[in-house]
Amino acid sequence: MGKVELAVEDGRWVLTLNDPERRNCLDDALCSDLGKAVSTIAADRHARTLLVTGEGSAFCAGADLPALFGDTSRTVAQTREHLHEVYASFLRLRELPIPTIAVVQGPAVGAGLNLAMACDVRIAGPRASFAATFSRIGLHPGGGCTWFLVDALGPQKAMAMLLDGGALDGPAAVAAGLALELADNPMTRGQELAERWAGLDPELARDIKTAVRTAHRGDFAATLEFESWAQASSAAKPAIQQVVERFRRS
Questions:
Q1: C-alpha–C-alpha distance, residues 41 and 231, integer Å
Q2: Taking residues 116-128, what's their average pLDDT?
Q3: Using CA atoms, how far apart are residues 192 and 148, in angstroms rounded to an integer?
Q4: Residue 235: CB partners within 8 Å, gap ≥ 6?
Q5: Average pLDDT, whole number, for the chain?
Q6: Treating both helix axes as pointing N-terminal to C-terminal, what angle do 76-91 and 28-42 enclose, rounded to 10 degrees?
Q7: What is the spatial distance between Cα 43 and Cα 250, in angstroms, rounded to a whole number?
Q8: Bridge partners (DSSP) listed for residue 63
Q9: Backbone phi and psi for residue 65, each to the nearest 5 degrees, phi listed first
Q10: pLDDT digit string (tens) for 34-72?
Q11: Cα(96)–Cα(88) distance, rounded to whole angstroms?
């Protein structure tokens, strides 16, 4: 698929940005390939998990700045429309019902940071960094970066990071809650999580993801209502009924 490679085994998908010479920069071609790859995964009813990573030294070095901002004849509205096309290529990851894991083996910069943050969890390697460098080049954050950082860091730390155009290395990202954990081999660790989570009933994994998203919006009543429905639905499944039967016999 051009600049994106896809692999799958037993419902466990791996999506690899594959333009290492350009540090997996999100140019128009890579964005197009990324969107097609996510569509392929979304259409697989047997999909269970997804790992997202980058080939080479960088996870993703961000957007192709000349392609996005080099044409000064464009109106603000035209640039904005193009930006939404770029945003959509990675934000569609958020729509997948399966657990998604970003394996960040190197720098995730700008739009590359957003790509990592669009996944449910992030595993950082020893050379990982998470950089929101927009303000350093006189550019406002985009692609959901403000929301992602406020969500992960809180408004005060997000404000400072965005004003400074700052970056967090792997240990700092884990300490701040932006990444789940640090691993010497992040792909191996990501595969371990994917294999474990792929072993769950797919409806259970999907509903847990929905419940977390609902709770994150801060609506206790809506979360409780969804939990009551999802728990009642899962209670009819063989796994819990086997546990119930063991209780009866004990």
A1: 27
A2: 98
A3: 25
A4: 241
A5: 95
A6: 40
A7: 44
A8: 26
A9: -65, -45
A10: 999 999 999 999 999 999 999 999 999 999 999 889 999
A11: 13
Q: Which residue's entry shows tokens 């086997």?
A: 242
Taking the C-alpha atoms of residue 208 and residue 227, their distance in angstroms, rounded to an integer, is: 9
- Tell me how long the chain is: 250
Q: How far apart are CA 9 and CA 26, in angstroms?
A: 26
What pLDDT is recorded for position 241? Answer: 85
For 77, 176, 203, 233, the CA distances from 25, given in Å and listed in that order, are 24, 26, 35, 43
| Cβ contacts of 81 within 8 Å, gap of 6 or more | none
Which residue from 3, 9, 40, 5 is spatially nearest to 24, judged by alpha carbons?
3
Say how far apart CA 89 and CA 103 lie, in whole Å.
18
SS3 track for 124-145: ECCCCEEECCHHHHCCCCCCCH
CB atoms within 10 A of CB 225: 12
Q: Poorest-confidence range of 20-29, 66-75, 98-107, 147-156?
A: 66-75
What pLDDT shows up at residue 217?
87
Residues whose CB is less than 8 angstroms from the CB of residue 40 and which lie 6 or more positions away in sequence, other chains included: 6
Which secondary structure element, helix H or strand E, spans residue 162, and what is its range? helix 155-164
